[in-house]
Design goal:
The chain has five helices and no strands. The chain has about 150 residues and is an all-alpha fold. The protein is elongated and about 60 Å long.
C-alpha cells in the first residue's frame, strides 16, 4: 500500500506540475487511474477493511525496498538500452529509460539520483511509521470496545 500511496504523492506533488510537462498528460485515463484512483482505493481499502494490529515494526523500514528496487530496475533497463536517451516516451520529451526526472542520470548525475533515492526511501519509511502508528492506535481503540 505504501508503494502505491507514494506513487500518488510523488506524481501529484513533484511530477504533475513539473516545468515543461504538458498538463494534458495528467488527464490521460492511464495516468489518472494509476496515479490517483488506484492509490485512493488502496488507502481506503486499508482504512476500511484491513485487520488492525497486524502491522509489524519492521514493515516501515522494509518499505525502503520499493524505491531501491525501482531504481535498480530503471538502471538495468537503461543499461540494456545502452543508456540511449534518444528514445522518448510517446507524446513527451522524456527519455524512455528515465521516466522521471529524479532517476535521470544525465540531468541529475549519480549524486543527484542517489539524493532523490534517499529522499524517497526516507519518505517511504516516514509514511510507513505514520501508518504503523495509525494501526496501533486503531488496534487499541478496537480492544477497548470489545
Amino acid at each position: 500500500m505504501l508503494g502505491i500511496l507514494l506513487t500518488f504523492l510523488v506524481f501529484n506533488l513533484l511530477l504533475a506540475g513539473a516545468e515543461g510537462r504538458d498538463p494534458q498528460l495528467n488527464w490521460r485515463v492511464g495516468s489518472l487511474c494509476f496515479h490517483v484512483v488506484l492509490p485512493i482505493m488502496f488507502v481506503l481499502d486499508w482504512f476500511l477493511f484491513y485487520e488492525r494490529g497486524k502491522v509489524k515494526l519492521f514493515y516501515p523500514v522494509a518499505s525502503m525496498a520499493f524505491p531501491l528496487a525501482y531504481a535498480l530496475f530503471i538502471f538495468i533497463q537503461a543499461a540494456v538500452m545502452g543508456f540511449d536517451t534518444s528514445v522518448l516516451i510517446p507524446g513527451t520529451e522524456t527519455p524512455l529509460i528515465y521516466p522521471y526526472f529524479f532517476v535521470n542520470l544525465e540531468t541529475q548525475g549519480v549524486a543527484g539520483v542517489a539524493k532523490w533515492i534517499a529522499i524517497l526511501s526516507a519518505a517511504f519509511v516516514a509514511v510507513g511509521f505514520v501508518f504503523f502508528g495509525i494501526d496501533k492506535l486503531a488496534a487499541k481503540k478496537g480492544k477497548k470496545r470489545a
